[in-house]
Every structure is written in structure tokens, then in C-alpha cells.
Amino acid sequence: MFGPEVARDEQVIPDLAIFLNPIPNIHAIRECALEHVPTIGIIDSNVDPRVVMYPIPANDESTRTAELIAGLLSIAGREGVAIYQEEQTKAALAASKRERARSREPFA
User: Fold this and answer.
1) Which residues contact 33 (CB under 8 A, 6 or more apart)?
2) Domains of the chain
3) pLDDT given at position 7
4) How far, in Å, CA of 96 to CA of 2, rounded?
5) Could you tell me the pTM of the whole model?
């Protein structure tokens, strides 16, 4: 889908950025803020929760915590995409039904 030419020629802005450890990624968080990209981050006691838009209080140094949170966010993302696609399909069907109904109406 994306090749080197796309990366060179176009700027792709993500819909969401997830940071498992915000401290070393503070520059990326700043770039997301400039582009108005929502951010989710695992926030430990040594991190200001205001650095990300949606903080998740947890131990950012635990591998198990990172795996659990990343897995849950992955499942939620897949479910969100499925719901979105289902809504788009329903909207397209409703629009085609309205269009067919309009085409059948006699002109006044």
C-alpha cells in the first residue's frame, strides 16, 4: 500500500498514536499535538498525565502490562473498524433504497 515514493511525496497523518512509554517518545507526542492527532499512553507515576490526550495509569516498565494494554487496544480498534464498515454498508443500502424509491415516483 505504501512504498518509498509515497513516504517521500505525501504526508500521512495517523488517526491515533499509542505510546507504551511516553518519556522517550516526547518528541513524537509533541508532533502529534501539533497535528491534532489523539494520543494514548501508559502513564506511570513518574510521568505527567497531561502529556497524552488519553492517559492509562499503569506500570510502563512491565512487559505484561504493555502486552495486555496493546492487546485490548488492538481488539477495540478492530471492533471499531468493523462497526464503522457495518454503518457505512447500512448507509449505502439506505441511500440506494431512497434513490430507487425516488426513481419510481411519477413526476408531478
Assistant:
1) 39
2) 4-104 (3.40.50.10490)
3) 67
4) 33
5) 0.70
CA distance 22 to 28: 9
Location of C-alpha cell 506511570: 44
Span 9-31, average pLDDT: 90
| Cell numbers describing residue 16 | 491515533
pLDDT at 31: 94
* Among candidate residues 88, 3, 80, 9, the one with its CA nearest the CA of residue 38: 80
Model pLDDT for residues 70-80, shown as the tens digit of each residue: 999 999 999 99
Q: Give all strands of the β-sheet with 54-57 in edge-to-edge order.
A: 17-19, 39-43, 54-57
Q: Contact at 8 Å (CB) between 57 and 43?
A: yes
In angstroms, the Cα distances linking 2 to 10, 17, 80 are: 10, 18, 23
Evaluate if residue 41 carries a pLDDT over 70. yes
Nearest to 44 by CA among 24, 72, 28, 17: 24
